[in-house]
Write a structure and sequence with these properties.
This protein is α/β, with parallel strands linked by helices. The chain has two domains: 136 residues, Methionine synthase domain (Methyltransferase, Methionine Synthase (B12-binding Domains), Chain A, domain 1, Orthogonal Bundle); 136 residues, Cobalamin-binding domain (Rossmann fold), CATH 3.40.50. Helix content is 49%, strand content 8%. The protein has eleven helices and five strands, in the order ααααααβαβαβαβαβα. α7 crosses α11. It is globular. Bound molecules: cobalamin. The site of cobalamin has 35 residues, from α4, α5, α7, β3 and β4.
Length: 281
Amino acid sequence: MSTSPSERPDLVCDPITNAGPPYDLRSPEVHIRNEVERIRFISWLVDHAHTPPPETTAPSMQTYAHQYLAALLKPDARAAVRITGDHIKTPAQIELWWEHVIQPTMYAIGDLWAQGRISVGQEHLATAITQRVMSVYYPLILELPRPKGPIVVTASPGEYHEIGPRLVADIFEMNGWDVYYTGANTPALTVIDLIQSIEARFVCVSTTLVTSLRAVSSLIAQVRAANLPSQPKVLVGGQAYSQTATLWQDVGADHLAANPYDGIAYLEAHVSLGVEPENRR
Ligand code: B12
């Protein structure tokens, strides 16, 4: 891709004026177009990873992503925190940043590593910087009201990729869900105990590696066999499902969501909202 993102205003989600993410949940066409543009953009980021980001007075989400990637690669944690902090003023802007800066830059980091253009150490450092950046916003995220009920978000057993589920957990939390996030490589019994103790009606399982899917099947089978009173629905997501359309059914899930917003649409379609708000955190 040779065009610069700043030359493509149609790809740009304005960071200041746009209230919400550029998804239209009712329109699969818009969703597919967004995903195609995102893939193109990641490839543009990879190609321009070592090109200094231009100085601009009206940065788009994509120029921010370019600047953020440069900070990860330098590596400059302070610059990554500063670029993020200059942009984020509201929870809606955290969501935009998670989806349109953190996700594509981490994919670009993965591609740069797979192409041998950065070392495994640089990839680890970039991941650590992103984790530090995200942690700045927990005082804000965790203070928001969460009246929609408790849910579990977990990375499946054997799965060490945890930024994806963390990002999902944060976006669910910012949309009113009371999220219990377990982190990476969570044993099935821990997940079952947690669902039981908080009476979660949903468990959301993130998986990146296809090789982890056997463990996902086992986790879901154990959740079903536990016959929990809250009868939790199992929502799955993550890159492990991107190659074959039916994998989510093979593992026994109730639903596959391509991104956090598809996930929210599923949760909201399957729960009656506004139940006992005084009992909700
Ligand atoms: C950081 C990283 C690591 C770190 C993870 C550290 C951590 N604390 O998370 C470490 C070093 C541990 C690691 C290890 C490995 N990694 Co790695 N890693 C990555 C990297 C660069 C970034 C991951 C990330 O943060 N992505 C950003 C998040 C936000 O995206 P996401 O997870 O896809 O989540 C989004 C969606 O998928 C969706 N989603 C995800 N889950 C869910 C769940 C629900 C319910 C919903 C609704 C939505 C949803 O929403 C999220 C937000 O949009 C990726 C590159 C990539 N393409 O992701 C490689 C990558 C995933 N790793 C890869 C590999 C090969 C490995 C190793 C096998 C390497 C090795 N030989 O040891 C190991 C496996 C370890 C294991 N058992 O899990 C490959 C996988 C290739 C493949 N097709 O299988 C990738 C793609 C790199 C590459 N380009 O080749 N890795």
